[in-house]
């Protein structure tokens, strides 16, 4: 049985947020990471198990960042097709494989030992849902977290772990609105989980911190930078953003890039275009291609490739029309997307 992997109400509410527009964002500042990698070459490996603070110096952690080479991949859930069939379809259409295969895990009662449908040379990205933060910060779920950490360690492959995403929204049990309007509780939970994973030997896991592009509610305490766990606890900074209200890629992603792009590799962790009339999806994809090409700190782009999203009739697939598919194919076959 396939898991219902994303809550549809999140996407619906993000549409409302898009209508509110992007207000001024208080941006976190910091020093540029020392020893940033040069084009085409990853930085040296550091021992995260013995020195968690070294994560601040190693760009990408267990999944290294390559400047000028963005990894490209998708969450794939296509009507009437298995993941294996969907991967094969996109391979035929695009003439290339997905570098990142994105899956969603529920918080509880799901402990897969392996993912044979995910190619061995692909990077597995797991978006793991959260829970009420007090259940984590109290230590009540330490055994559960440790079990998942051991499972991921035993997979013996690089994993991008995107836990508790879009924490600055108001549609998930782990967000600030549902946890007393205290972003500090999210930070405490994140750091506790990070420590447990390290203790269980899950050094193959790269941690992806990924807020929504704008906050809901759009008030000072809920700005994304208040939820940042710290450089030592984050390997990649991700962001979710869609053109629900015809936002451009620059409008969606520039605040995160400006805030963290000199300190961490950036991932467009959840993005896609919906159509707003003839030719609009293709035009947006071409704009995205240009934006990523002009933004060297972006090291990964992950498309939300589905036509089966519960709670919405939107179609996020890039092949809804021939022009959109051609633009998508041209984008992902550029050297910039060959990471």
Automatic annotation (TrEMBL):
Q: Could you provide one GO biological process annotation from this protein's UniProt record?
A: substituted mannan metabolic process
Any single Pfam family the record assigns to this protein: Glyco_hydro_26
Instruction: Give the family per the record.
Output: Belongs to the glycosyl hydrolase 26 family.
Provide this UniProt record's keywords sorted from A to Z. Glycosidase, Hydrolase
Residue stretches making up the GH26 domain = 22-335
Kindly identify the residues recorded as the active site: 166 (proton donor), 270 (nucleophile)
UniProt xrefs under InterPro entries: GH (IPR017853), GH26_dom (IPR022790), Glyco_hydro_26 (IPR000805), TAT_signal (IPR006311)
Q: What is this protein called?
A: Glycosyl hydrolase family 26
Gene Ontology MF, one: mannan endo-1,4-beta-mannosidase activity
Annotated organism of origin: Krasilnikovia cinnamomea
Q: What is the lineage of its organism?
A: Bacteria, Bacillati, Actinomycetota, Actinomycetes, Micromonosporales
Coiled coil start-end: none
